[in-house]
Fold:
Amino acid sequence: MDLLGLIGNTPLIDLGFLSPRPDHVQLFAKAEWLNPGGSLKDRPVKSMLTQAIDSGLLTPDKTILDSSSGNAGISYAMIGAAFGYKVTIVIPGNASEERKMRMRAHGATLIETDPLEGYDQALRHVRALYAKEPANYFFCDQYSNQSNVLAHYHHTGAELLSQMPKPISHFVCGVGTGGSLTGIARRLKENNSHIKIIGVRPQVWPGIEGLKPLGSGDDIVPAIYDSSLVDHWIDVSSDEAKMMCQTLAEHGYFVGQSSGAYLAACQTLMASLSHGVVTTLLCDGGERYFSTRLWQS
Structure:
């Protein structure tokens, strides 16, 4: 098995200890931090890059280019290194130092943008960079690339359905690029149209790394994100995400901020249910956030 073979087929974890009524409301999550790049993003980046190579869009003379909050950047750097490609990532300056270090370890070049401008500024910058030198780059554009969605439709969503011991009633997920929510939700709803999709939304920026505060006015809405799939939104604060990360750590699981946000939303949801089977994702591990305020007491 090579590096790409290690991506996906992550285990399903029973997190029933977080449920207020575990006999009636159950909670399961996919352990996505066990991918070799340490996050959920290995899945779409593998899909996007292999498709681009197969189609001839990505050739050895081009540098892989995209913007990222950090995790996709690691996946690009790792898989790009395995394939022998140069990688350039445009990233908000407030991305955790651990993630920047991992990207540089794989040989990626980083361009940092103003952290107060958020992910949208990184996306604007990468588009401008590509427009100036289109012959030198393969702009993967994870915000618009349908292979991002298809990776989750064909793999993450399908795995979730095959691993679940009981029928799913709810799936809880946020929006970064929109790929995981859109792909997984489509697969789940095709299997059972009664499954409810619960969107997780940070209250403000800067707030929770990897999640967009959709509805703030000037947000760039990812082209691949299908808002019609979301049945209900739950707003989560960065403090709530942090507290849930701490709670999970006390039970032995060490996860990052978006995972904490998803689980905080799951708890809010479960408190309103008399019965149900709730599912979500644990997108990455907590080790890459030591330099942020997440783990500061």
User: Anything to note?
Assistant: The mean pLDDT is 94. The domain at 42-139 is CATH 3.40.50.1100 (Rossmann fold). The radius of gyration is 18 Å. The chain has two domains: 4-39+152-295, 42-139.
